[in-house]
Amino acid sequence: MTRFDDATAVKRAGDGRYQVELDAGYAIAEALNGGYLMAALLRAAVDASPHDHPVATSANFLRVARPGPAEVWVESRKTGRTAATSRVSLMQNGDPIVDATVTTATLAAAAEPVWSGQPPQLPSVDECLTFDSDKEERGFADRVDMRFGPATMGWLDGRPSGRLEQAAYFRLHEEQAPDAFVLALAVDALPPVVFNTGSYGWAPTVELTWHMRAVPAPGWLSVHGSGRLVSDGWFDEEAEIWDSTGRLVAQSRQLARVGRGRREGG
Fold it and tell me: Model's pTM, two decimal places?
């Protein structure tokens, strides 16, 4: 069992009730990453379903989650031969933290697409950038291995590109083939695309919808983020995730608040 598996593991505590211990290692600043929270929530949804994969998830983030004990409540809405739908809530100290509607189905690992677009291009892994830090413990950045496309990282040096974009290779630091729950983490792993407009600081996700499109192959994932509009303190962000064989395995779209900080040159 990997560290990520352990950090997202749920224990059945009754009919539609699960216990989970939220891990501080998946925090960014003081807030636990939304993709990490979805991964834990989705483990309960899949455990309660006759199907293997969370193919459609629509999650509303209501409060900041803190490390420590939490519960997941799963309420079945419909169960069918092809798909099942549940309402799933992550609860902490009696308060709902994330409310989601989750549809599960079983995807064939060997399925071949009838039609597919092509993945956006990234430089080779060795040509991409990493975050460096002298801190011994960096939370989320120590749990994932991300290599960022240089063209989308000008904001780090106060030279934001002015385009709503981010791109990176993604995998866990520990050796683990990507699965549905790693995809849930990956769709919310990029720095906010709004950083490239010169707006920084915490950009909390309000709502995120993502689709699992295929079972990913082992190896690096490539994650490509974009957006359409920044207005009145809000921005949108879309992400596509492609696996090591060039297959589209996940898509997401979220609505988030713009961070308040700005850097010189932005």
Answer: 0.95
